[in-house]
Amino acid sequence: MAVVLRLASASPRRRELLASIGVAVDVAPADIDESRHAGESAEAFVSRLARVKAIAGHRADDVLPTLGADTVVVCDDDIFGKPVDEADAARMLSRLAGREHRVLSAVAVIGARGTLECRVATRVVMRPIQAEEIQRYWATGEPQDKAGGYAIQGLASIFVERIEGSYSAVVGLPLHETAELLSAQGVPLWLAGD
C-alpha cells in the first residue's frame, strides 16, 4: 500500500484506525505546546491542537496531505489529558466513575483544498469503579498514555456502560468524518480501488 498521507501524530491507535480504512501513512509526530489558553473552551482547545499539529507536520514542498488530530476527555468543564502518574489517573477515573462525560476528537487535514477541519463529541457513561479496580488497571500499563486515563478499546471497556456517538472518536480518530475530510482532499480510501 502506497503512502498517501502524513500523520502528525505518534499515536499507534490513529495509525491503526487509518490503516483500517486503507490509508497508509508517513508518521511525522508534531512537537507542539499542548497547553490550554486562558478562557479557552474544551471545543476550541481540541480543535486548535488538531490544527496546530497539522500545520507543524505539514511540509510545503510535499504533495502528501497532512492530518493532525487531538482527543480529550471532558468531565464537567475540566479537560482530562494523559495522566502524569498513578495518582492523576486515579483522580480522573474516580471522577469519571458512575457518571457521564464527553470525549471530544478534532481532526484537521491540510492539502490541496487548504485546511479542512471537523470536531466530534461522544457521550460516554461509565459504571461505578472501585479504587482497587483503578489500582489494578493502572498496574497493566494501559492507561498511562491515554486521555482520561483509560482506553475504551482495551481493558477499560468493562468500565463503559454505553456511548452515544462515535466509538472510533473515543479511540482517537472519528473515522466517518475523517474519511470525508480525506476524500475532499483527494486522498484515496480503500473503496476507491487501485
Q: What this model shows, in words?
A:
- The termini are close together.
- The chain contains 6 helices and 7 strands, in the order E-H-E-H-E-E-H-E-E-H-E-H-H.
- Helix 3 crosses helix 4 (131-139).
- A hairpin with a 2-residue loop joins strand 5 (100-111) and strand 6 (114-126).
- The longest helix has 16 residues, at 42-57.
- By secondary structure, the protein is α/β, with parallel strands linked by helices.
Topology (elements, then pairings):
Blueprint: E1 3-7, H1 12-20, E2 24-27, H2 42-57, E3 66-75, E4 78-80, H3 86-96, E5 100-111, E6 114-126, H4 131-139, E7 160-164, H5 167-171, H6 175-184
Parallel strand pairs: 1-2, 1-3
Antiparallel strand pairs: 3-4, 3-5, 5-6, 6-7
Helix pairs in contact: 3-4
Number of strands: 7
Biggest sheet layout: 7 strands, mixed
What is the strand content?
25-35%
Q: How many helical elements? A: 6
Give the terminus-to-terminus CA distance. Answer: 9 Å
What quaternary form is this? single chain
What is the helix/strand order? EHEHEEHEEHEHH
Low-confidence segments: none
Query: What is the overall silhouette?
Result: globular
Average of per-residue pLDDT values:
94
Q: Radius of gyration in whole Å, from Cα?
A: 17 Å
Task: Estimate the helix proportion, in percent.
Answer: 25-40%
Structural class: alpha/beta
